[in-house]
Design goal:
Layout lengths: L2 H25 L6 H28 L4 H28 L16 H36 L1
Helix pairs in contact: 1-2, 1-3, 2-3, 3-4
Amino acid sequence: MTVQAIKGKAMVQGVILILIGLLTGFAVAALTNPRMGVAAHVAAIMGGIILIVFGGILVERMHCSAKLITISWFSLLLSLYGNYALILLASIWGTSMTMPIAGNGFRAVMWKESIVALGLLLCNGAILTSLAIVITGLVKHNRQTR
């Protein structure tokens, strides 16, 4: 995938994720755990902003191969959408193991808690992978522009 294609897709996906987050805000009161619903709402909006920044600013400044930029893009996309979806699922199921403050007073069966916990762990790994590539690419860019 070309850098130009990633730029465009990242910004579109960012706006879509922001829209999803705003729409989630309307459903917060209907969720099993409304506090966790607010967390999902915020995660989607912040994730959308991160995607827009990635596509609008960071991709151009990363000095690394197109393959690494593509890996970073897909890792970021999957982690941000996955993070939102899993937090929303936690708000529907009432899980609290991974987010004890937002989940305070709620408890779900162990298999639901495990699905959310494992999913969030995988999302964290994906976003860390993406950020490691971004940081490496930006450091290389800064060294070459000096």
